[in-house]
Amino acid sequence: MDGMHYRARAPLRIGLAGGGTDVDPYATKRGGAVFNTTINRYAYCTITPTGDHSMSVHSTDYGKYEAPLDGGPLTLDGNMDLIKAVTNHFGVTDGFRMFLQSEAPPGSGLGGSSTVIVSIIAAMCEWQDIRLTGKEMAQLAYKLEREDIGLKGGKQDQYAAVFGGFNFMTFGDTVNVNRVRMMDDTVNELQYCSLLCYIGHTRESAAIIESQVEKFNKGQNEEALDRTKELAKSIAVAMERGDIRTAGKILDESWIYKKQFSSKVTNPTIDKMYDTAKEAGALGGKVSGAGGGGFMYFLCEYDRKYYVAKELGKLGAKVTDFMFEPKGVISWRYPND
After folding, report:
1. Is the pLDDT at 3 greater than 80, yes or no?
2. What is the DSSP string of 79-93?
3. Residue 1, pLDDT score
4. Which residues of 295-316 are buried (b: 16+ CB within 10 A; e: fewer)?
5. What SS3 class is residue 102?
6. How far apart are CA 303 and CA 129, in angstroms?
7. Among 27, 80, 175, 289, which has the minimal tally of Cβ within 10 Å of its Cβ?
């Protein structure tokens, strides 16, 4: 025991356009592009060394788990696999307690599992005095989550959690993260006009992604994915120019195409909420993440945002206060008194 807590905090993200084009095989075959941003909702990880050779995990979402660390690699069996995969990768045999907390429920569409694994990696690196570049950390998070564990999803979430802020990302043989330079006035105006609400119906993103991939392999959604990729670039350009009204219209068009990815992206409840928001003064919006439920994001006329929120509240949506977060993952250590 060294008398320290090793902590990390990684921000959750909102994908504003292009989400779905970062999913293979489309991303590899045709190249994907996404415009996203992080918000002040986080995944936290705390590691406290114990001096023995076992790990004890407490997750506010998934409960508790204990396992010995001196019996070889931990088996990835669907129970606390994010922690196991990171522990296996770094070859940790020294005992520790881990506390995990995410400020978004599972299935929220805010990139939760990817953000959690980024926070675990960052806390583990803080403890083990390992230095990774941002790209190395994001690549590792993707490999562990998507390849080793086999959780289905795209490539944007890990990079958003690591780098933070407004980014235009491209996906192919490599991933490029390009910071979108926005004036403070634009960010403030965007914040003022943005509305985030929780609609419930948390979904299993894997089923939606499987459906999307199946349609792509049959040639049924390639045009929609191509157009969505173009719109991701267009909205990034609009934001750089400070043209929020145009960005809202692009968001609206992007949602039309996203619904063509899979029949599971939307449902009558989501359609009703979207139509109601548009009628009340929203310029455009979308379901965050793969679709099916969780959080919806809307860009509104500044003097209609209140009324959009009011009408959505009548339908059961819960408006969530948030701010855009310019920073990515951070880690630190603090005495264990």
Report:
1. yes
2. SSHHHHHHHHHHT--
3. 63
4. bbbbbbbeebbebbbebbeeee
5. strand
6. 50
7. 175
Under a CB-based contact definition with an 8 Å cutoff, are residues 133 and 186 in contact? Answer: no
Nearest-angstrom CA–CA distance, 264 and 225: 15
132 has pLDDT over 80:
yes
The model's pTM is 0.96
Contact 119, 213 (CB under 8 A): no
Over residues 84-111, the pLDDT tens digits come to 999 999 999 999 999 999 998 888 889 9
Q: Which residues are catalytic?
A: 157
Alpha helices in 218-281 (DSSP H): 222-241, 244-258, 268-280
Domain 184-319 has CATH 3.30.70.890: yes
Domain ranges in the chain with CATH number 3.30.70.890: 184-319
Measured between alpha carbons, how far is 118 from 23 in angstroms, rounded to an integer? 19
Res 203: pLDDT: 60
Q: What is the pLDDT of residue 320?
A: 95
Q: Where does residue 319 fall: left (phi above 0), alpha (psi -120 to 50 degrees), or beta otherwise?
A: beta
Q: Is 153's pLDDT higher than 70?
A: yes
- Per residue in 230-267, pLDDT (tens digit) is 999 999 999 999 999 999 999 999 999 999 999 889 99
Tally of CB atoms within 10 A around 185: 9
Say which CATH architecture domain 4-180+325-335 belongs to.
2-Layer Sandwich (3.30)
All CATH 3.30.230.10 domain ranges in the chain, comma separated: 4-180+325-335
- Written as one string, the DSSP assignment of 270-290 is HHHHHHHHHHHTEEEEEESTT
φ, ψ of residue 90 to 5 degrees: the values are: -90, 0
DSSP label of 176: E
Residue 223, burial from CB neighbour count under 10 angstroms (0-12, 13-18, 19+):
exposed
Rounded distance, CA 86 to CA 124, Å? 8
